[in-house]
Amino acid sequence: MAGIFQRSVKLRTVLRHQRLHRTFSSRKTARLSAVGLCGSFHKLPSGSWQFGATCQKLHTVADGPKPSAAEAPDRLPFSRVTQEDLAFFRKTLLGRAITDSDFLESSNVDWLKSVKGSSEVLLRPQNTKEVSQVLRYCNSRNLAVTPQGGNTGLVGGSVPVYDEIILSTALMNNILAFDNISGILTCQAGCVLENLSLYLEERDYIMPLDLGAKGSCQIGGNVATNAGGLRLLRYGSLHGTVLGLEVVLADGRVLDCLSTLRKDNTGYDLKQLFIGSEGTLGVITAVSILCPRKPKSVNLVFLGCETFEQLLKTFQLCRGMLGEILSAFEFLDSECMRLLNTHLKLPNPISDCPFYIVIETSGSNPTHDGQKLHNFLEEAMTSSLVTDGTVATEESKIKALWSMRERITEALTHDGFNYKYDISLPVERIYQLVTDMREHLGDQAKSVVGYGHIGDGNLHLNITSPAKDPALLGAIEPFVYEWTARCKGSISAEHGLGLKKRNYIYYSKSSQAVALMGNIKAILDPKGILNPYKTLPDALK
Amino acid sequence: MAGIFQRSVKLRTVLRHQRLHRTFSSRKTARLSAVGLCGSFHKLPSGSWQFGATCQKLHTVADGPKPSAAEAPDRLPFSRVTQEDLAFFRKTLLGRAITDSDFLESSNVDWLKSVKGSSEVLLRPQNTKEVSQVLRYCNSRNLAVTPQGGNTGLVGGSVPVYDEIILSTALMNNILAFDNISGILTCQAGCVLENLSLYLEERDYIMPLDLGAKGSCQIGGNVATNAGGLRLLRYGSLHGTVLGLEVVLADGRVLDCLSTLRKDNTGYDLKQLFIGSEGTLGVITAVSILCPRKPKSVNLVFLGCETFEQLLKTFQLCRGMLGEILSAFEFLDSECMRLLNTHLKLPNPISDCPFYIVIETSGSNPTHDGQKLHNFLEEAMTSSLVTDGTVATEESKIKALWSMRERITEALTHDGFNYKYDISLPVERIYQLVTDMREHLGDQAKSVVGYGHIGDGNLHLNITSPAKDPALLGAIEPFVYEWTARCKGSISAEHGLGLKKRNYIYYSKSSQAVALMGNIKAILDPKGILNPYKTLPDALK
């Protein structure tokens, strides 16, 4: 503690010298939650899909005659749930086959309230055997199934499009094992990310991923969508940290790849296929994951920059001077700050700037970390890369500062109808897309904001309008996708494709690659019952 | 430098206090090389394989009537290379279709000289287009192909079994791009790992992997075999660090997944399939990989322990106290030390102990790193976890100490015929296997040694005998595999399965998983021309 105190004094001196001020909010970080939001739904139009012929429409076009490629194709010829089916589910799941419409309401709609299905049954298995029994039955009956975790996704991947059966992992929430020497956690898919974090923190470890939706999202959904989040810069992607998966395939077979080994080169690494497959290849029922030690010291810095170029130079300086203790480097622009001020009444902790940076350090020695941070801040301010800033070392203040980054999504929902884009780009091009989009849209949009994970080259571009606006959408797309493709970027860095982005896959993947994905889908789910209308495009090129 | 000096003094004081001495060798680390070794070959016997019927035998059983499951099945009914085929290759590759027997000699045999093929043509394409032309032709002609990188593998995966055409990536050795902001390197598959390391070090970065064979092995082969090595503890596996691959499929189609983005969730992550597939699913022609910053400070510590339990406690202490700067934690036993002394004349840098530990730290601040190391060593010695040790901070001394770990493979080759096992286990069980094996074999073996990557739970168990000894092999196998399977370990942690271990896959993978691997092979290489007789078992359960 003496080290922290000493460091705080030093930093304060430096900051005062540079006319920085320390103004912390004591508000707690809000968590995203799928419960309690409301809004309007759009209905879903026609098209064709690769796994079957067109069928009876349940939804019609709501906004004009020309459907967007994001909207759903016609319902495929899956069976409809009968009384006999319900009897089987009720017998198998004993009180956990839900048909109550109030309960179904929240499971049928996504967190953004942008996609709504009309499923009439929600199944809540408690273990792998039950998942296997359900899927074997559904496959034999040609009943479509939408696996659902915390339902916090942003691309309409976790809700039914029509009457698909919802298979929730919420009751599969047991921790199966934790090895305190290796840091390897094994748990059921339905464990909520924040609960796992709390469990591990008591044992001096942390989860290798963290994201705004942690209070609701489940580890199975995180893996199925290859969630990125705030710690990817430091601990890497789930393709590296997930060591094993148990997956139930479409026909009910259980694929046991639930290894708890750091290294295993015996044949093809099949579990990788399911990481990021959005529930279209199998239902993840258990996960083993390598967890890092809990850092003994965490610091958060909130800085202001005059230009995006200075922000990038600050990133470079930071990587060199903070080195192995850098655990996050995030940014938001002044438009994000305006929305946080306006809609959530969160005041700017520093003076107004065009760009803001959130830097987190996590290390094993508070004194060393403080010294590294001090040296970095001194250099960043002396060389005029940053113009204002504030530092937090106490947990409540760290949470308050993090909320300036984590609550942007929430602030946006209060600004109007959201058009959300989650783009990977070479880091030096990231903000040019925001600038170009603003110029391109002119007065058509209410707000055009950019924020995201600089360290991962990941921009969250969001555009709002007072209400849903097909003309605005026509101006945004395909402009945003073409711009991204020209820079060899990805049109979905971490959100996945789900329902909304499935037909834009060709902007980031070759037709050879997409065709091969189709082949893999056909092997694992020949009837296409698992999460139909998601991830893969309606038609292969 | 003042920091280093100060630290050295401090450490020396501590070490003297604990009766540790500093005795460094100035010898340079030797590199493994495929050139210049000699030994005897065993010929390969009969069996059946999943992709075709049995055919004319080129090899016969050398050692008794009962073939081991490691030995090769009968030749499959691939076409034989004709004069027309050679004419095509010569026209396509212009002087790089080699039929000279001297040149072919070293490409037909593996580094251990344990497997020898009889290929009559070696193809050396320079670019992806040429690889594509060659494979399209071979696929249409039903000619089998063995892709070959640096040919440093230990399981017979990189050499032909019969007359397969050898497709070498050695001339595809260009660096295509390096982004100095993101640290993302893009290069052709044939770049030698050490050359990439040297290129990056000049630019203040390093490769995320390092292994003893770095002077010969190629990045394409590293990826194809999912090489682990000495830095995995810190930077994770290639499943996390490889960002993109370009792969030529069996029929000549080029699969472009050569993304240079840290995040890309547009569809299934196909490149993962090829990482660790040992050239059986496609030929990797280019790689993009995320490279860490070059550490500003590296220290190496060589310690001695009385028991394996103390070694494990030292590991736990080390993870807590060195935290984010720990970059390797390796071990060797006293039998390894004896072989290094005897066969390579490498003296023990400390006093004799039952177990030795090699710890590497890599960080951004020499003073901080030195302090952390000092604190750790003080604690380890005060609590009597370690009994002797030596520290190196200068590059030449670091290399000399590393050679005690890196040259064990070389020392083993001088001890007789090698039976090599590369096992993943829960870390607390690792050495029990060595002890049990010694007891089990009694006087049958010449040496039974254990070393490896404690931090990754990876044991290299090696057994030697004066000459190849079927009775000894019968005593080792399936004992070693059954022992490993009982602990839910992996029978190949990082070496892969290749020819030698293919039939042991079921000790670590379920029949469901292996069947799915077979399905994926059938999609990508329906004629089975790519690296036949490797990775997958002869018969599916």
UniProtKB/TrEMBL annotation, chains A, B:
Every FAD-binding PCMH-type domain range: 115-294
A GO biological-process term: malate metabolic process
Name the enzyme group at the top EC level. Answer: oxidoreductase
Name the UniProt key words of this record, in alphabetical order.
Answer: FAD, Flavoprotein, Metal-binding, Mitochondrion, Oxidoreductase, Transit peptide, Zinc
Q: Where in the cell is it found?
A: Mitochondrion
Taking the first listed entry, what is the main subcellular location of this protein, grouped into a coarse class? mitochondrion
In terms of Gene3D superfamilies, this protein maps to:
3.30.465.10, 3.30.70.2190, 3.30.70.2740, Uridine Diphospho-n-acetylenolpyruvylglucosamine Reductase, domain 2 (3.30.43.10), Vanillyl-alcohol Oxidase, Chain A, domain 4 (1.10.45.10)
Pfam families per the record? FAD-oxidase_C, FAD_binding_4
> What molecular functions are annotated in GO for this chain?
(R)-2-hydroxyglutarate dehydrogenase activity; FAD binding; metal ion binding
Give an example GO cellular component term for this record: mitochondrion
| Cofactor(s) listed in the protein's UniProt record | FAD
EC code(s) of this entry: 1.1.99.39
Q: Can you tell me which family this protein belongs to?
A: Belongs to the FAD-binding oxidoreductase/transferase type 4 family.
Could you tell me what this protein does? Catalyzes the oxidation of D-2-hydroxyglutarate (D-2-HG) to alpha-ketoglutarate. Also catalyzes the oxidation of other D-2-hydroxyacids, such as D-malate (D-MAL) and D-lactate (D-LAC). Exhibits high activities towards D-2-HG and D-MAL but a very weak activity towards D-LAC.
Q: What is this protein called?
A: D-2-hydroxyglutarate dehydrogenase, mitochondrial
Source species of the chain: Channa argus (Northern snakehead)
